[in-house]
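Key result, reporting period 2: structure in, sequence out.
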């Protein structure tokens, strides 16, 4: 579940790396190794209720893969404000 301001877009990023990515004036993420291993997993719109349900696509990933996920908010409701606000990072390992 992703929450935020209705009308904003949550840019869901994934990476196998816990090295940070800094894009000055745009966003600072705790994952991605300076974007060398940063992947956009999806960009769901935050609904009028202030949240949306979204599932990280995991099909086809190898068992035992460590994956780190973090979102950056594209503040469309506020007129596209930068820098983007990142979420806390989440980490997990694929089991099967």
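The corresponding designed sequence is given below.
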């Amino acid at each position: 579940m992703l929450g935020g301001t209705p009308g904003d877009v949550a840019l869901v990023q994934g990476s196998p790396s816990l090295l940070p990515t800094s894009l000055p004036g745009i966003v600072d993420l705790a994952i991605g190794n300076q974007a060398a291993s940063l992947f956009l997993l999806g960009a769901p719109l935050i609904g009028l209720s202030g949240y949306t349900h979204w599932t990280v696509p995991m099909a086809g990933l190898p068992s035992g893969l460590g994956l780190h996920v973090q979102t950056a908010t594209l503040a469309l409701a506020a007129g596209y404000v930068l820098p983007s606000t990142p979420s806390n990072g989440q980490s997990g390992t694929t089991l099967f």
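The mean pLDDT is 92. The two ends are 22 Å apart (CA to CA). This case is discussed further under Risks and Mitigation.
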